[in-house]
Structure formats: C-alpha cells, structure tokens
Amino acid sequence: MPKAPTPEEMLHQLHLTIRFWEAKLLDRGLLNPSTAALVEFTVEYLKELDKRGYP
Fold first, then answer.
1. pTM value?
2. Regions of the chain with pLDDT less than 70
3. Which helix (H) or strand (E) holds 33?
C-alpha cells in the first residue's frame, strides 16, 4: 500500500498542477486577469480548507 503524501509533497503537486494549467491556458490565449484571480482564490480556498482540517 503506498504511503500518504506529506504536506510538502501535496503542496509541490499543487504547484505543478497550477503551472500545468497556466501553460495550457496561455497556449490557448485564455489566461486573463479573471482566470488568474479564479486560480488564486481557488488556491486560497484550498489552503483554508487544509487549515481547518478538511480532507
């Protein structure tokens, strides 16, 4: 059974995922200020959930 990822590994994976989608959106000309804000708010929301102990 694989071990659970550490918080650092999870954060690293989140950063890689964000960079991946930023590149995809840039390639398609879809990365505009509102999309960037949505990504930032989503990351903040996920951090808040993590602080509160939600899975």
1. 0.60
2. 55
3. helix 33-51
